[in-house]
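job 3f2a | input accepted
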Amino acid sequence: MDSIFVQTSLLLAVTVGVAFAVKLLRQPLIVAYIFAGIIAGPFILNLFHGDHELYETFAQFGVVLLLFIIGLNLNFNHLKSIGKVSLITGLGQVIFTASIGTVLLLMLGMPLVAALYLAVAITFSSTIIIMKLLSDKKDTDTMYGRHTIGLMLVQDVIAVILVIALGMIQGERASGGSDLGTMIVMLPAIAGVLYLASRYLLPKLLDRIADSSELLFLFTLAWCFGVASTLYALGFSLEIGAIISGIALSSSPYQLEIASRIRPLRDFFLILFFIVLGSEMGLSSLETIATPAIVLSLFILIGNPLILYILFRTLRFTRRNSFLAGLTAAQVSEFGFVLLFAGRQAGHIEGDEVAIFTAVAIATIFASSYLISYNEKIYRMLLPFFRRFGPDKYRQQDRAPEQYDAWIIGYHRIGMKVAEAMADLKTNFAVVDFDPAAVARLRKADIPFYFGDIADIEFLEGLSIAASRIVIMTIPAVDDQINLMKFVRKSNKDALIIANAYHAADAAALYQHGADFVMMPHTLGGEWIARVLKSEQWNAKTLARLKTEQHGALAA
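job 3f2a | predicted structure (556 res):
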């Protein structure tokens, strides 16, 4: 155990050092994890020694949590809103990229099964990297951004289906009992049971436990691993269980909070997953993998954008939107690693496929980060070339992002009154609260709401709160209010922010951090009773009248 602890400590130290260097180059940290694995592998530091199997188990945890969160975030409503464009471009891109990739690999002398696996693996673009870079550029709600996200969702669905199919084959081989036909029959029944659970059982359970973030976190882990283990016992793979358990919670109002709680744990095990994969790419294999890795990298960076450009142009998109959407998808995904990982576990591939894909991932993720960051400049550079084909006959306008004009933080005594005022003013507003009882009232009142903790930056990044006109905080926690103000002010200095405090020192701190006004309910209450005492007679009749007025206000 001491040896494992020391190995892990050294492994994390190496990873942090590489991550600092990668961060200076403004690259996604997935590149650092893969490089750290190469350095820690048998051909340089050899930190794994005889415990490689243990780290592969850790990597399996990372895959399960990754697939759980992907299932949790499968937004079919978004896919429906994007419509047939995402479906056509998603399916078309996967088919053409996989077909051309297979032909290229066969020409390089790779066996058919290995070529198919690797060609399919390179079809998927990284949702995590694309979402991060589009968010940084504030392009998630542009025309090309929305359809690129829709394209990613279609790719995720296709990848999920492939992983499920591989998992069923793998489960059949591992169980030695259930045949594939029986598993295909069982899957709809299992999906039906989980659908009923997500519709009737899980909402009641989550309403009871969501007031404790620790219990919500623990229940989510128990649900994920419990469903995955149950399906594994029935002959399916752990990956199938992870995806289905996430989908079962995807419609929950607590979905954002669950995802933000699970994500740090997923990231830790996923880091180990990429380190393990990097460790398997030894320096001795560089000569073998160099040619296919270079060919596939160039295909992803040039051919993939070209395929998407043609598909979007066929669907009457402008040159600009078609070009930007194609350029955004010019990298491979972490899903490709999962697919090859599943294929290796199923016994279908045993060669250098993972090492080749790792090299392609490093090259394409590194390059595409700059391509996405500077996509507008690249398009303007190529504009003279595009103009040689005449004026663009298609016209599109980016839809303005749907935003809430006002956000109310906290739905209790003050927040309820503020919400009533917003409703009377016909203002487009939403509420954020971390109390299941408040969520129940919001749901009953049919008010748009989000369940989550405003102290969690990842939760805030999932909202459009920074783009609102006014934010009204009615919660007592001063630190949480300051956290939210910093988040809003980072991108919107003109937003009006009303905070809440019970003490003069807290009000001063809130003003110092950017509040436009601070409500002080206790001060207002004290001033009101002082005015009553000065202006009214001290008798039972006066208090009875005030009591009646109070009851009327409460009833309203």
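job 3f2a | Confidence is low (pLDDT under 50) at residues 174-178.
job 3f2a | closed
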